[in-house]
UniProtKB/TrEMBL annotation, chains A, B, C, D:
Keyword Hydrolase part of the UniProt annotation: yes
Active site: 244
One annotated GO molecular function: formyltetrahydrofolate deformylase activity
Native species: Aquibacillus salsiterrae
Reaction catalysed by this enzyme: (6R)-10-formyltetrahydrofolate + H2O = (6S)-5,6,7,8-tetrahydrofolate + formate + H(+)
Function according to Swiss-Prot or TrEMBL: Catalyzes the hydrolysis of 10-formyltetrahydrofolate (formyl-FH4) to formate and tetrahydrofolate (FH4).
Homology family: Belongs to the PurU family.
EC class: hydrolase
Pfam families associated with the record: ACT, Formyl_trans_N
Gene that this sequence comes from: purU
CDD domains: ACT_F4HF-DF, FMT_core_Formyl-FH4-Hydrolase_C
Name the UniProt record assigns to this protein: Formyltetrahydrofolate deformylase
Length: 299, 299, 299, 299
């Protein structure tokens, strides 16, 4: 299976070897778009797509995502990055240049419930989620067979709050050894320490099974049932040290009614969790998200 | 205008003079449906629609709503109600028999923002919200002209927390004088005292501008904006003494993104508030809602 | 894997050994509900759930689905069915009594695109789609490995319009040999002959990749793209001899915009196809659907 | 009422006196964004918002909408337009520069059903639909009172297919006399001749009560009911000479079920028609729509 996916990845890399994405955040002022687009033009790049957002044209932040194509990009990359420094300094830019052929390395953390993991693997198999899934990490053996059958490494690391530090140490070593760019918590039911979160800042995406900020914390379906809500939801967000308080990437909901008990809600909710997490992960992989303070700009 | 609506109401009453709705709540056990349907059959009634819900067939509550048609219903009504007592006692029923031609009397409370009021009036004019709108009560003069142009009484009762008791006294007198069955808080921005709420138990419907239980209390759009949510919502619920904690009738949401500030959310939200409140009010008028503990069964 | 599912199925059968569902279609007239519920009560059955629909109380059709529980149902089944004949005759009923423990036997037909098949198998593995998936039939080998890894028989039957008759002969033999109750066309790209359709009347569910009646026939995404629609959809329906004209069970849509080309629409659409087909199949397995003329009543 | 709206309009004009929107369509090639943004920068303009779409970077069309702010715009407008000709010629641009303070003049055509008209007027009153509604034209007197009560001119022009030419002559004179920029058919049930359509090319927005291309033509709800669909919808589009075939601007749907007859669908549908038409009209007024061949790009 892995070889079949690998082939898709290789085709994708080749097709996109001249494409890059430029993400910029800086104080708003006239001339930014003119300078950047002039720069790209002079370096032989053609803008394919561009989205921008001015928080407040008079004194707010300015955000832009530009996707461009440039012949011989690999050879020119260093030069482009060096030359861009001048503009970046002039406008006090916080910027990143991401090469599309640099497929991101991803680790998926999961506990017992496999639905969110399965959705990601399904999107990955069908070529719609372009990442190098380097490993699945779990505190349960449940998903091993399925994960390994796809040729993906499965690391069983038992965890509980008493051994949290040692567990995370092991996880961090593993993640660093594989240069992981993105950690997806696909219903991983362990709390992460500030140290772990800090180590992978804005690189951990979680799926929470409620429409936050409703039902922060444990057992949201049980609490939704007791409250008698008519909608249940799911929220994907970057993980910060405040539980379920990180920047929200995507949310969605589904209708429920008086006939649905907490268990029915859990089942209905799984379908929302799957799609909300998959959308958030894809947007991250496509460099569509800029985190600003405690919010996301999703282009 | 009122005469045009009155005509619609008269036609409706005549068309439905033989229709009634039976709402029952009782401990679940075998034989309830058999007894009730046999009873209706023996009294010459034909069941038009019926919905039921068993919380838990082994020992929970049972709920049923039956809509039936019965020739000469007006003459037979007393007899039916009397005869039904036997069944009601046998099964320990909490029941109500509502005659469709008994159009409910409704009062709408509103403060400054008129959108929810306007939606109700629009549905009422088009004949889709079958009620006798006896009055609009407001602590602002803003909507007077529009309300009176439709031939509806407008009562301006200034209100603030210092004079709450006197204000409510005046309101209660007015509502009782007109035998009001339903009070709709269409963005009425005053808190009601326990006394007022108790006086009209399960007869006050409010619209809250968030998907509860997120953003209970004041300024939900401002707080939604600060939290960076990707969905905003509205919730209609019966009013209890716990602020925004009453039984939820209906909820809905709309997507927002990073470009929408609190003011944009307020505008987008108005459209959800309008439809969520209108649906809840219509369901109440059609006797579709049974309140059980802090939840609603909506048939 | 199959043994794991088999275990779930066994638990389900045992938990539901006393449950049955009664589906009735007959001319509307007073006394139907009274007679049926009285009958069930006298036979010791407790109604758990009941939904009904009167097309037009004065002279239309009446439809009802009753789910009931009855101690020792297996021993009493014959007696109940025999005794019910009297009522059925009196009211000219078209009726079916389905025992919940009689898990339905299902065959899935698929061509190359596996997404709809995968969704069904995923729901089946998680215990949410309660069926005995007896076989997958395909005119391509693509899905063999995955299907067989779940312990399900995979039958590769090459097909094209020149050998349609022979192919269907083989398929019918196979389906009959396994007493198949439901055939799901999970993106099976071959047209079925009237003979095949007639053999399994109201037992074949198809997923069509458009919101019918828009884009009947081939290449709906290509045509949706050319027309510039802002919504794409999917429709599950029972198969009849008129292409894409059978009774619709379920539909849903997703938003697209000018950036989405036909290939993007195909990908977005797959997600709708998956959920729309899964819902339709589950409703069929739960005996929630009554076909009347060219429409479905879904309880 | 009109004076109250007029005040809002005046405030809006003043707040936006330095804002403009540039819409461009041209063959794609490198350097477009650089040239345009450099041009704006040199003329003292600050880009507030910008969206673009490349049909196909290698040889397709390129579309961009830029919203910018420029001090003393009114004095500079002529110079900007003149200077821009050079760039426009270089890149073979089809372009428009729209000044935000130039509020568009709008006429609404309606027949008997007032719901779509009412929604537009409601959005207009609340300041969310920024237009100068110069007149309502109708072939029925139904809405006169309501329209005139808002201070808007109401023109009753009886129409039928025998007098189509004369009727349209009268309408065209009226529209031209008031320099109408946009004609909204808010459920106007008369067919327009090619002459009328040609006179106001891409300036007539219609609301059709189905999700096109399903149910082109008359009585879509009746036909949706007969087909047994589970979704009904509405479509707003620019009017062309092919009935219901013009470029689609926006669509939406709502769920229906077997209980809903054609009349229920009509009522449910009205709510979709209202919001779909209002969104389309607002996008047009905000210069968000570029028509290309038979499609719309909506920025």
């Amino acid at each position: 299976m892995k070889s079949y996916i690998q082939e898709k990845i290789d085709v994708y890399k080749q097709q996109n070897e001249n494409k890059a994405r430029l993400l910029i955040k800086c104080p708003d002022r006239p001339g930014i778009v003119a300078s950047v687009s002039q720069f790209l033009f002079e370096h032989g790049a053609n803008i394919i797509d561009s989205s921008q957002y001015s928080q407040d044209p008079e004194g707010g932040e300015f955000f832009i995502r530009i996707e461009f194509e440039c012949p011989d990009l690999k050879q020119k990359a260093d030069e482009i990055e060096q030359d861009f420094e001048a503009i970046a300094n002039e406008f006090s830019m916080d910027w990143k240049l991401m090469y599309v052929y640099n497929i991101k390395k991803m680790a998926i953390f999961v506990s017992k419930e496999p639905h969110a993991l399965l959705e990601l693997l399904w999107e990955w198999q069908s070529g719609d989620l372009m990442a190098d899934i380097a490993m699945v990490v779990s505190n349960h053996e449940t998903s091993r067979e399925m994960v390994e059958s796809l040729g993906i490494a499965f690391h069983y690391i038992p965890a509980n709050k008493d051994i949290r530090k040692e567990v995370e140490q092991k996880q961090i070593e593993l993640l660093k050894a594989h240069d992981i760019d993105l950690i997806v918590l696909a219903r991983y039911m362990q709390i992460l320490t500030p140290h772990f979160v800090e180590t992978f800042k804005n690189k951990i995406i979680n799926i929470h099974h409620s429409f936050l900020p409703a039902f922060v914390g444990a057992n949201p379906y049980e609490r939704a049932y007791r409250r008698g809500v008519k909608l249940i939801g799911a929220t994907s967000h970057y993980v910060t040290n405040d539980l379920d308080e990180g920047p929200i990437i995507e949310q969605d909901i589904s209708r429920v009614n008086h006939r649905d008990n907490a268990e029915d809600m859990r089942k209905i909710g799984q379908s929302i969790e799957r799609s909300v997490l998959a959308r958030a992960v894809k947007w991250h992989l496509q460099d569509r998200i800029i985190v600003h303070e405690n919010k996301t700009i999703v282009f």
